[in-house]
Amino acid sequence: MLQLLLLLGAATSRCLHDETQKSVNLLRPLFSQLPSNFRSSSLTLSGSRDPQPLRIQSCYIRDPVSDGAWDPEGDGMRRESRALAAMREAAQRLQGVLAVQGALLLSRDPAQYCHAVWGEPDTPNYHRCSLLNPGYKGESCLGAKIPDAHLRGYALWPEQGPPQLVQPDGPGVQNTDFLLYVRVAHTSKCHREPSLIAYAACCQLDSEDRPLAGTIVYCAQHLTSPRITHSDIVTATLHELLHALGFSGQLFKKWWDCPSGPNVRENCSTRQQVTRRDEWGQLLLTTPTVSHSLAKHLGVLGVPLGVPLEEEQGPLSSHWEARLLQGSIMTATFDGAQRTRLDPITLAAFKDSGWYQVNHSAAEKLLWGQGSGLEFGLVTTCGTGSSDFFCTGSGLGCHYLHLDKGSCSSDPVLEGCRMYKPLANRSECWKKENGFPPGAENPHGEIYHSQSRCFLANLTSQLLSGDKARHPSQISYQEEAELTGRCYLHQCTEREAYMVQVEGSPWVSCPPGKAIQIPGYYGLLFCPRGRLCQTNEGTDAVTSPPMSCSTQDLLLKLSLGLAGPLGHSLGKQEREELTEAVLQALVSRGGTDRCYFHSPSITTSLVFTVHMWKSPGCQGPSVGMLHRALTLTLQKPLEVYYGGANFTTEYSKLLVTSGHNPSMTHLGLSIGLCLMLLILVAALRTVAYRKRATLQVGPSAPYHSPELQSTRGPVGGIREV
Questions:
Q1: Which segments within 396-496 are labelled E, that is strand?
Q2: pLDDT tens string 314-329
Q3: What counts of helices (H) and strands (E) characterise the chain?
Q4: DSSP 8-state class, residue 265
Q5: Is a pLDDT exceeding 70 seen at residue 691?
Q6: Does position 704 have pLDDT exceeding 70, yes or no?
Q7: Distance CA 452, CA 431 (A)
Q8: Model pTM score
Q9: Is 232 within 8 Å of 197 (Cβ atoms)?
Q10: DSSP alpha helix (H) spans, 654-701
Q11: How many CA atoms lie within 13 A of 667 on its CB side?
Q12: 3-class DSSP state for residue 192?
């Protein structure tokens, strides 16, 4: 489970996934519950060996009665809409599973529907169900009732002879590789943990232990809270989805070792060792890609490392150690979407599961501890001042991403190590509304703006008694102790080079690692090294603030020229299907919701056109933000596979239009200037674009064992007769 710090810095929340997953009975298709002549559908593998997009299907389960406060006539629809929008957006960031032909069918638990089995080994129907459980009401997954249409059937078997069919196989779920049930409720867990946004568990596995289905429960009260943004809910959803897909202490032991890749199953076997303890007793995840990724992150390539797991809740840990991987999507605490990354080490874990192929270029850069060496993050070194990622004492400074002011503090998962955590109120330098009201005193010259960041400084416009401004090299220890986090404008000029501006001052160059003076102010401002103005394709929320100009009502027209195989012609129906395929690829590449895209079409000369504006109720950023993302991402050709052929974009045009949106007013000169600024920023690559992470999963071999005893003894909870 992922919990949000409602008052950032005020408390430490924890994720309770291990507790939740332990309460779920993981089902695996161990045997056929019906004879072959009763089967209505089955799973077969696609003939293609190439990885295909991971198809996550969400199914919303309404709670007729919740075990807590729930008002279906009040905010119910708004909660449902917000949960499903977050689910869709999180699923779009994860992509790529080998396709399955036919319907996905889930298993039933014999321990639930069967009260007794035949226990005489000499009988033909040995270990098959001889007596049904009269109280059986179907299958559920973490409180979500699974529809019979998604489940295999079951039968009652006499001592000899054919069975009596009780429930046939359902039709299943087409074009799906993972089925996620979604609940919105106020459960006892939500009541017990008030800061909990959502929790999830995996419920069913395939015959090779790959997760097939799970449930995510959203705590209803947070889906209408104005303090939790849409991005926060999406990030919480992504965290829970990654747990359900395999990042779980309960599932680590089921990971596969596939030397030839997950699409060549002949060479695969269950991993012999996934975790171990080091000489100090720390639990480590030790699979090869994960270890290499951590070594690369710390700058110690060639050193065999395991990644520490956080064990606050016990030995079955499903989270990275926060001291080492602060800001990763899979740590146990969460302090907002802007400070969280889908990092390379987490994606490496999915590669090592043996179920997925991973697009590592889609990972978001993790700044915490980057290049800090082997001893970074140890309890024995974090308080020695050897790394500026950690702090000592209880003073005020800057969160390591420099988006926020922070206080030096610890929490249970940091185990005594201290870092600058965002303050409970008005800590965000990038929020203009946190600034001083007109006429208020501002002796430190602070500026709150979308392009402002936190700097350690002791600047003041008021002359201190008996003091004068001095050269940075003359600063004394007493003055250094007075340094605190302050918000000032920054502007990147090139990689790791930037300028700063204080209220009323000119722009001043800020060399990383140096202390500078600001005209008109006494004191010093320290320029952080390696945290600002790093270019990283796919992410850089730290140095790419949202634009201040408004483009909410902007209307754009996108044209993409496609190139296909020579001599390949398309009829009207084929063009319509290709239009849909291109639109899906575009939505996935943009990492946004489909509600932005309207009236797509493809001409006979293979020119794809779509209009873009933000429809009412559409969750997500402005069209201007989408414009900047597409401007960057379409520099790389878009590839679409359709009808056995590859189609690739040759060019793209993204233009402002008018007259297509009846609700749109004339844009005017100000919008035009704003759009020019957006394009200029994109061209300078100071605006980051978050690529979607791509997961690709290997095939799931069908299982053909007709009897229960072929894989295990009597089912727990079922008696023999």
A1: 396-398, 405-409, 419-422, 452-457, 484-494
A2: 677 899 999 999 999 9
A3: 13, 37
A4: G
A5: no
A6: no
A7: 8
A8: 0.73
A9: yes
A10: 668-684
A11: 23
A12: helix
Q: Three-state SS string across 482-531, please?
A: CCEEEEEEEEEEECCEEEEECCCCCCEECCCCCEECCCCCECCEECCCCC
Query: Can you tell me the mean pLDDT for 653-676?
Result: 44
Flag the least confident range among 61-75, 432-446, 571-585: 61-75
Question: Which three-class secondary structure state does DSSP give residue 421?
Answer: strand
Tell me the three state secondary structure of residue 336.
coil
To which H or E segment does residue 293 belong?
helix 288-298
Mean pLDDT, all residues of the chain: 78
Q: What is the DSSP letter of 660?
A: S
Q: Measured between alpha carbons, how far is 323 from 369 in angstroms, rounded to an integer?
A: 9
Half-sphere exposure of 674 (CA within 13 A, CB side): 19
The single-letter DSSP state of residue 131 is E
Q: Where does 328-413 show beta strands of DSSP type E? A: 356-359, 396-398, 405-409
Distance in Å from the first CA to the final CA of the chain: 42
Looking at 80, 139, 208, 240, which residue is catalytic?
Answer: 240
Single out the residue of 301, 135, 113, 206 nearest to residue 715, CA to CA: 113
φ/ψ of residue 349, rounded to 5: -65, -40
Residue 433 catalytic? no
Report, as an integer, the average pLDDT of 69-94.
74
Q: What angle do CA 262, 264, 266 make, to 5 degrees?
A: 115
Q: Which region holds residue 324: left if phi is over 0, alpha if psi is between -120 and 50, else beta?
A: alpha
d(CA 441, CA 459): 14
Beta strand extents in 233-292 (DSSP E only): 256-257, 269-270, 275-277, 283-285
What's the pLDDT score for residue 683? 39
Type of residue found at 227: R
Q: Quick one: average pLDDT of 278-285? A: 89
Contacts 24+ apart (CB under 8 A), 113-118: 113/154, 114/154, 114/715, 114/718, 115/718, 115/719, 116/718, 116/719, 116/720, 116/721, 117/708, 117/714, 117/715, 117/718, 117/719, 117/720, 117/721, 118/157, 118/159, 118/720, 118/721
Task: At 229, list the tokens.
Answer: 């943004």
**Around Cβ 302, how many Cβ atoms within 10 Å?**
7
Distance CA 155, CA 683 (A): 64
Q: Which residues pair with 156 in a beta bridge?
A: 164
Q: Are 554 and 619 in contact (CB under 8 A)?
A: no
- pLDDT(153) > 50: yes
